[in-house]
Amino acid sequence: MINTNSRVDGEKIAKKKFGQNFLKDETVLHKIIESMPNDDDPVVEIGPGLGDLTRYLVEIKDVTAYEVDKDLCEHLRRRFDAVISDGRLKLRCTDVLSHWDQESLEDRPYHMVANLPYYIATNIILRALKDPNCKSLLVMVQKEVAEKFSAQPGQKAFSALAVLAQSAGEVHLCFDVPPESFVPAPKVMSSVLRIVKKRTLDDSEFETFLKTAFTQPRKTLAKNLSARFDKKDVVAALDSLDLGPSVRPHEVETSLYHHLYKILKGDIDGREENSGKPTQQQ
Ligand SMILES: C[S@@+](CC[C@H](N)C(=O)[O-])C[C@H]1O[C@@H](n2cnc3c(N)ncnc32)[C@H](O)[C@@H]1O
């Protein structure tokens, strides 16, 4: 059993299999709280851990927290006894991803604020982009993952994840957090990523299309897409959008991926598309 004192030794109790790196840096905790949306919607926290971020969240918001580790749940129940009793904190002791398969994480609009378990961070973000009740995300992830979601077209890190996130809303890498801010310290740099959603992703075929487009990020987009579509159609579709046959996947903007997808799916004729031609912003 974990000592209910908030000063428990994170180093000793951390379980690697659950991606436990506890955020102990008060400056970073405050920066996260200051970056939160300023409205009355509740917050969903995934992986409250020892509760060091949770204790600030419950001061300003109604919170639903999902924690998979039963030992930590027991600790959290004791630490937050009063706020659980008065309804400000709902603690769900379960694997968030299996819960999400059945329903949204909240039955009303919510913001996600979390120091995510890194081994499933990408899955959680993608799942949140598809949850109609999730309005925004403010999440700590591995810096490399934050860059994949927030990179701009033309940057090497621009990926299918960036296209998806930018299709859902505004994406911003807020700040970096060094390993020594956590106990135990992870091997990598972390970053806080914010996504403010304007729409919900609801087309899984578009996701599959992007996976094909970015299969081999250093090859041409035409080569990647030709694995699924006729090469002549791919080159014609690229041409209709003023994209040359040698363009690489990371060089094409989000809006053009949507046009390409529609053309290749047959929703839009390339020539028709050409008349009100969208072009790549230089
Ligand atoms: C990086 S730690 C963050 C802990 C705490 N929020 C903090 O900032 O110190 C990730 C947390 O997510 C929890 N977790 C891991 N996998 C989970 C899952 N599938 N569902 C819910 N929580 C999970 C871990 O047990 C751990 O508490």
From TrEMBL:
Top-rank EC class of the record's enzyme: transferase
GO molecular-function terms, A-Z: methyltransferase activity
Protein name per UniProt: Ribosomal RNA small subunit methyltransferase A
Family: Belongs to the class I-like SAM-binding methyltransferase superfamily. rRNA adenine N(6)-methyltransferase family. RsmA subfamily.
Reaction catalysis annotation: adenosine(1518)/adenosine(1519) in 16S rRNA + 4 S-adenosyl-L-methionine = N(6)-dimethyladenosine(1518)/N(6)-dimethyladenosine(1519) in 16S rRNA + 4 S-adenosyl-L-homocysteine + 4 H(+)
Catalytic activity, EC: 2.1.1.182
Top-level taxonomic group: Bacteria
Biological role stated in the UniProt entry: Specifically dimethylates two adjacent adenosines (A1518 and A1519) in the loop of a conserved hairpin near the 3'-end of 16S rRNA in the 30S particle. May play a critical role in biogenesis of 30S subunits.
Lineage, top ranks: Bacteria, Pseudomonadati, Campylobacterota, Epsilonproteobacteria, Campylobacterales
Entries under Pfam families matching the protein: RrnaAD
Chain positions recorded as S-adenosyl-L-methionine binding sites: 21, 23, 47, 67, 95, 115
Subcellular location: Cytoplasm
InterPro entries reported for this sequence: KsgA/Erm (IPR001737), rRNA_Ade_diMease-like_C (IPR023165), rRNA_Ade_Mease_Trfase_CS (IPR020596), rRNA_Ade_methylase_Trfase_N (IPR020598), rRNA_adenine_dimethylase (IPR011530), SAM-dependent_MTases_sf (IPR029063)
One Gene Ontology biological process: methylation
Gene of this entry: rsmA
Swiss-Prot/TrEMBL keywords: Cytoplasm, Methyltransferase, RNA-binding, rRNA processing, S-adenosyl-L-methionine, Transferase
CDD domains: AdoMet_MTases
Domain Ribosomal RNA adenine methylase transferase N-terminal: 28-199
